[in-house]
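Instructor's aside before we start: the two examples that follow are unrelated to each other. I chose them only because their records fit on one page, so don't look for a connection. First example below.
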Amino acid sequence: MTARPRASLRRVLEDLGSTVLDVAASPGDLDAEVTGVHIYDPLDEPLLQEGALVLAVGVDSAERVRALLDAAGPAAGVVVKQPVEVDEPLRAKVLETGVAVLGLTRAASWAQVAALLRSLLAELRGEGDLAEPGQPPPDGLFSLANAVCALLDAPVTIEDRSSRVLAYSERQEEADAGRVATVLGRQVPERYRRMLEEGGVFRRLYQSREPIYIELDDEGINRAAVAVRSGDEILGSIWAAVREPLSEQRRRALADAAKIVALQLLRQRAGADTSRRLRADLLSTVLAGGRDAAEAAGRLGVASEHLCVLAAQLTEETYDDAARLEGDRQRFCDALALHVGAIHPKAAAALVGSVAYAVLPLQAGGQEETRAVSVAESFLTRVGPRHAANIGVGRLAADLTEVARSRSDADRALRVLRARGASGQVAGYTSVHFEALLLQLSDLVRADKQAPTGPYERLLAYDAEHGSELVATLRAYLDAFGDVNAAAARVHVHPNTFRYRLKRLTEIGGLDLADPDARLGVMLQMRIFGR
């Protein structure tokens, strides 16, 4: 059996380069294995897995870093924003705990570095690659980027068709400000992308099967680029920051590298599709809560107690392109998985149909649904500019046997938001319980092909025949809790006129407004039939 590739702290630092992370204080060697990324929150109990890289958001003094090192236990390293205050007591604490302290450039956001690290760790461990049984996984994109960098003697990025950075080489600090911004954001900044489009660079790049040379004038160091293809399909491109045109030997090296990168991207695409289908199947099994839920939870690595289900769905009315909708659904789900994974290492998310479900472990102790709603609101705030969506939140499940109920809760809360025509909203099930019950009751009524009855039916028929407004009068009266003046103002008539209409509707409909059951019955029919 081939052992899983090991991602050491030293390798992570070498691949990221000093553009992003630097060592502030080291216990000696940097051979500790990095197993995952954890975002530190001083308000939560630290649940750190061995080898975690802790992103210390808001930790800005040597004293607070020392306290975090004491709490970090088996972590591989702690990341704080530069400049890092390193004094002798902190150095001593680093040696005592064996946990390195790393400095993150101030230009990077925590979301950026979390995404960078997770992507890099997946590459280093070979996750998503399709290797033959008994064979080591193929080299990752970051390794390929470093190899191309060595061949060309220039910093390199590998990008997809949308100019998102899939991997990058070392030595990025030798490039210009545009390249640094690209690496940190994992996306070519809009200003530079627009400049390349207006200059016809992408058209030249994708029409040519050979590397092209791009002069950027005063915008920074020039570029050499080549399209990455699979037959006639454009998979992405490779970009090298160079100061002069490539020699023929280096042009051939770049063209050959594009073929290798194409194979890797195809492997990753196949592996990612397979992995996503597997995760969706496993999470569906967990959400069903049957006898196989425990095994599926174990394979997914999710918690089995104190779980809350989130059901997230894009506002599909904003799409007129089915292909773009499907792509955005998957990117939206990936972002949700990243978000909940940063909160708890045993959370999971997957796309099931058109809904992205997340299983979020929570510490029991009250207000769990409120905390889950807060997590969902924070996520929508982050993705809101790119994805309009709603999220329903289920009640806490004490164990896997109750997860199906939490999933149903989340689905019903999400349905309430859709029925409201909401976008960018989060609803916990308990806050929309009554609306959810009304929707369920409406389903039963439609299934049985039922129609309005009693006083409500008679009032509808009278309005239809005489063009009167008796139903509107009744609705205004009930909505105003029997306050005639307020109800008359709602329908823009004099209170005396309103009282006359009220008397007429009780006579015609045979409705006793003094009877609470009669009022409830007609109110429910109004809500269910919506007329």
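Example two begins here.
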Amino acid sequence: MSVPSTALTSRRFTVLRQRPESGQERPSYLHRTLSLLAVLSLFQGMADAIRSHALANHKVLVLLLVLYASMVLLAVLALTVRRQRALVRVDLAVLLAGFLRFAAIFVGSVGSSQRPYQDDEGPLVTLAARALAAGGHVYGRHWPHFAQQFGVGTTPLMNGRFADTFSYPPLSALLAAPFVSSLPSWVPLLGLFAFAALSATALFMFRTLPVQLRPAATLVCFGMSWYFFYVRNGYPVFLALPFLAVAVHRWTRTGAGGVLGRRGVLSALCLGIAASAHQLGWFLAPFLLLGILLARRGELPWRGALLVTGRWAAIALGTFLLVNLPFMIRDGGAWVSGIGSVLTQHATPQGLGAIDISYYLTSGSGNLAMYSYAAALLLAATLVALLVYPRRLAPALALLPWPAFLLAPRSPETYFVLLAPLWLIAFASCPQEDYQGLRQWRPRLLADRRLRVALPALLAVPALLCLAVAVASPVPLRMDISAVRTTTAAGKGSSAVTALTVRLTNTSDAVLTPQFASSSSAWTSFDWRVESGPSMLAPGGSGSYRLIRRGNPSGGSGSTYLRVFTDDPQTLTSAVIPTAGASAAKP
């Protein structure tokens, strides 16, 4: 018996509708490509890791060799499996391989003969956790010898000191406190927490991203080889990462219909916890709050939108205060200055951004504080831009707070790039049609289309003016380097500066307290002792300084710069240190 063509057509469409649910359709080229890229990203550093453990740790060596062979097989499977469901299983296996690869290299870097950390974040959190476990104060307490104790570098300040206090919100110390006394001192406890947090973020991404984008969880979290250094050293920003991931996930649906629901409450709780782990959560919060408000205003009257957004913000703020309450009571004002010190401590310039103009391209700046003002103004301008152009900018909401940091004098490029998983989660988890439903603020002033087009540039003008002032401000010191002593590294033929005689003249109207450093690369050394010379220079005053290099400096093949910092006002004066026997002056 023949079957009508309409029945065949109907049956065909029924099968097509069922295929996405059953997972039997063929994978797309995009999905296969991302799966292959995820596998390829895991090959980064594998050969070096295998060779470095060839004799040192046979267990790690065997695991890495098995993973290496497995990754080759997974790459083949990513291109040959015939069904979507099978490729998803391959993606999950690649995620597991990425986790095991990261774990193997992590374990291989830990041991009783190894330092627990190579940077100052982990040691300061460890000392704060020990103080907390002993019932002592956490904020306002100094650990002046922690660098020698842990064998790490420090964060130098413009006043010649270095950051030796716990300057993060308390979550990292709270988590570490129960374990710091029971584990061996060589165990990087904060690194373990950071690894667990990164793994949780990767799993959350894999679970919540669209099927075709799931390989990005491996690619972003385990395939970026530079992540390892920051995870291994226990950067507290990783503790905030999984909580921020939950907070930005499907943010356009938070409070939909005027009801927060379980998901909305969980989002607010996670934002409050993230803000209790690292200050970067503070900068994302206003953008997320404004985005949720505009999303709700797109479907509700102002009263309803403000109420549901206000409840969400109140839960987030209440969670933050609840976590911090014991420290607010115990440490009082020290808690406020402690968690805000990263914004107020005047750390010396470092990072990638506009500060490099004064640090590498010119002789310095007589007003470094203007870089901070430029960053703050650009951050505010970006928030206003989101209000005016929400449908255009909302897809990049999780990325919007960070461009402003490129203008800061200590641009924390490594910090906000570590939050890259949020950029993808916030974008890919929200239905694209939700962006078009955001409320657009259109006051009469912006009725003219030409003004709307010009507004982004106008918003950036105050920040650009501050940046111009910072770059154009003349250096406050005239520098004359009259004597240089160098040593030659045995067998290397390179020389290093070990002593200097410098004459400084204050050409500004302020009293200056000079602090000395030098650099022959992107890194600056503060290992200088002033053997003689005035501590302060009055306006128009001069002084001769004898500088002695502490420790055993390593030589460099390029020019070496002498850096002179002052803290109040914040200034930088730089000059090339001439070769021994020559002299140089630089205004």
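Residues 129 and 177 are 4 Å apart (CA to CA).
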